[in-house]
Amino acid sequence: MNEIFNKNPSLPEYVGRTVLDTIGLVIPSIDISLREEMNLPDDIRALGIISSRTGAAGQICAVDEAVKNTNATLVSVELPRDTKGWGGHGNYIVVGGRDVSDVKRAVEIALELTERNAGEVYINSAGHLEFAYSASAGEALAMAFVAQIGKAFGFMAGSPAAIGLVMADKALKSADVRLIRYMTPDRGTSHSNEVIIAFTGDAEAVKTAVLTAREIGLELICALGEYPSGPSVPYLQ
Amino acid sequence: MNEIFNKNPSLPEYVGRTVLDTIGLVIPSIDISLREEMNLPDDIRALGIISSRTGAAGQICAVDEAVKNTNATLVSVELPRDTKGWGGHGNYIVVGGRDVSDVKRAVEIALELTERNAGEVYINSAGHLEFAYSASAGEALAMAFVAQIGKAFGFMAGSPAAIGLVMADKALKSADVRLIRYMTPDRGTSHSNEVIIAFTGDAEAVKTAVLTAREIGLELICALGEYPSGPSVPYLQ
Amino acid sequence: MNEIFNKNPSLPEYVGRTVLDTIGLVIPSIDISLREEMNLPDDIRALGIISSRTGAAGQICAVDEAVKNTNATLVSVELPRDTKGWGGHGNYIVVGGRDVSDVKRAVEIALELTERNAGEVYINSAGHLEFAYSASAGEALAMAFVAQIGKAFGFMAGSPAAIGLVMADKALKSADVRLIRYMTPDRGTSHSNEVIIAFTGDAEAVKTAVLTAREIGLELICALGEYPSGPSVPYLQ
How many angstroms separate the CA atoms of A180 and A145, rounded? Predict the structure, then answer.
């Protein structure tokens, strides 16, 4: 059986893969009983799907950009309790459109940006950190983190959760930003071992807060283990 | 301390073990305060317990047959978020009876069938798939997945979740089956990174749908990693 | 970037680390928007935070003692679904006080006792067990497990969950104790693969019940794997 499979499936539903066990798929015309369960609006026939074992904000930001730049619209964002044995989330994001070409393009863009955004996922033997920044939040960030559309958006997560709270405190004090989402193991997460915050403000202030959280998070996570690596190159500066 | 323990406990509660870190145990007469917390009916004194770190439908199908073939009845089916670092479920299933002999026989049958059913659990470095089929659903499948008792039952799960949705779409279109359960990270699961469906119909149609889901799932999961292995031999055909 | 970090952060928020990926941190004066989200009383300005990837009752007992012996008070206890790939919980515990010196002392005590209490965490390749005992429960045990303040407190957890139920049954029958908390994958846990109970009674009876659960749990978990090890030395006897 083994030999009939290879790393590049011929299945038309397959769009591509990238880091963090992320797969991008499309469904040209979703089955009618699934359509009902998903409460899809009438004008959506084609679906695009992105999901990963590890990461949340990076992939959501990637889909956020993908939706802005195509005719696809956002259907749902879910955050399973995953990260391949670590204390955080994976993701399962569905976009929709009238035609498969719309959603396919969105999935392609999302896969590309997921690779870049994964540069801000830091994992060591003890825990993990994740950061994200958008100069202008769109539909996906609004759905997932109550971001205001068109405004700058910052995100940070730290695990074990205690590290996240200190990062959050330092980030919020470092610049004139406004807290829009506060998540803990029992609040808003899927019982992950993280404190997560999202915030808004002027673009510069938001970026300062994200970079402050990153500096603090890296220092603290190194107290528990080696310097964390990630699957891509850090890109926020 | 070490030397007093061995792989075959002498404890009368121990029935046996099998693949997927599955253990089978009995309690001849459950403690009265636990009985109250569990809301057990008066005629149940003895409990049989099956649980595993990995797998859901295979063990539930195994208990389903065990209950059909003994005087044990089903008490509860719970699906912890587990799979030993993967994105799915483990299981914790309790059956009850008047006498310990009834539940012990049920646990023995469930352990045997769990080994066979584990042939339809596929795990690679990126994710996992699980499949199940019953020609005639019983109490356990009804409780866990709203199966209609006496009807054919099909089950598939795919992780990362995007793979599960494409499997589900293809399965439902491949044969004249009816969707009875649709589960996602935020819906019906314990925040697992899966899309899961259960369906019914004529026996041939249900089996066709399961085999279609398996073919698609194996092709997609191989895009993210090596050909998946499992603890037993695939048995559905 | 790597070289600027080391195992002993100079950050004033850092208090210390210990086994089970436990970190202890303080925040001298919590950010005002976080204060609101956390619903902190007016007289709490400083926070102390303990969190770990693995373990629940051991760290809660440690904080319980820390709060008794300092001017810190308990703010929150949360149990993420973690254990680094195993089927249990991690922890995220926040204490508060008027001054950072109060909470810092509490965090130091909690870290010390966490190391000792970790002697009653047992992990093998298949599952894990955890035990805890307090001669006199305080605020943290009351908040987490409905313990009665001032009374003896016993705790046991077993994973896979079936093992936990047999341990619970044997423990409750072994001595004159009263069940105060019963938790399963779907009830009271964060979908962990455990049965957990907490109980009270005379100090001797509570300890007998804990030791009975430990003996049974070790025998059963050895049926699935090797003799379990832990990060510290068992201390209950």
Answer: 8
Q: Which of C6, C34, C78 sits opposite A168 (nearest CB)?
A: C34
Place of tokens 């208090």: C15
Q: Which residue has the tokens 């769990």?
A: B114
**How many angstroms separate the CA atoms of A146 and B196, rounded?**
28
Pairing between strand A121-123 and C46-52?
unpaired
Query: Helices then strands (H, E): number in chain B?
Result: 6, 12
Closest chain B residue to the Cα of A33, Cα to Cα: B179
Contact flag B84-C81 (C-beta cutoff 8 Å): no
Q: Count Cβ atoms below 10 Å from residue B8 Cβ, excluding itself.
A: 11
A2: nearest CA in chain B?
A: B227
Is B158:B164 a contact under the CB 8 Å cutoff? yes
* Whole-number Cα distances in Å, B47 to B26, B95, B104, B113, C181: 6, 6, 8, 19, 20
Cβ contact A158:A131 at 8 Å: no
Task: Quickly tell me which residue has 């006897």 as its tokens.
Answer: C237
Structure tokens belonging to residue A179: 């807290």
What is the tens place of the pLDDT at every residue in A159-192?
999 999 999 999 999 999 999 999 999 999 999 9
Residue C62 belongs to what H/E stretch? helix C57-68
A76: tokens are 């749902």
Strand partners, B187: B184
Residues 6+ apart with CB under 8 A from A155: A57, A61, A130, A131, A132, A133, A145, A196, A197, A198, A199, A210
Could C37 and A219 be called an inter-chain contact, meaning their C-beta atoms sit closer than 8 Å?
no
B46-52 vs B91-97, strand pairing mode: antiparallel
Hey, which residues does C196 pair with through a beta bridge? Answer: C157, C183
Threshold 0.90, pTM exceeds = yes
Which residue reads 């093998």 in tokens? C124
Rounded Cα gap, residues B77 and B70, in angstroms: 18
pLDDT over 90, % of chain B: 95
3-state SS of chain A: helix, strand, coil percent to 5? Answer: 35, 30, 35
Residue A2 has pLDDT above 50, yes or no: no
Contact A157, A129 (CB under 8 A): yes
Other CB atoms within 10 A of residue B216 CB: 25
pLDDT in the model for residue A10 = 87
Q: Which residue among C169, C182, C186 places its CB closest to the CB of B78?
A: C186
Q: Contact C227/B53, CB-based, under 8 Å?
A: no
Q: What is the ipTM of this complex?
A: 0.95
Decide if B53 contacts C193 (C-beta within 8 A): yes
Task: Determine which of A86, A146, A191 to mutate to test the interface with C (most C C-beta atoms within 10 Å).
Answer: A191
* Rounded Cα distance, A20 and A119, in Å: 11
Q: What is the pLDDT of residue B145?
A: 97
- Which residue of chain C has the CA closest to B53? C160
Coil, strand, or helix at residue C193?
coil
Contact C72, C66 (CB under 8 A): yes
Cross-chain Cβ contact C23/A85 below 8 Å: no
H or E segment and range at residue A179 = strand A177-183
From the list B82, B48, B70, the residue with the least C-alpha distance to B159 is B82
Q: Is B233 on the interface with A (CB under 8 A)?
A: no
Taking 70 as the pLDDT cut, the residues of chain C under it are 1-7
pLDDT of residue B9: 85
CB contact under 8 A, A78 and B216: no
The whole-number average pLDDT for the span A8-31 is: 96
Contact criterion met (CB below 8 Å) for C106 and C139: no
Kindly report the nearest CA distance between residue A182 and chain B, in angstroms: 19
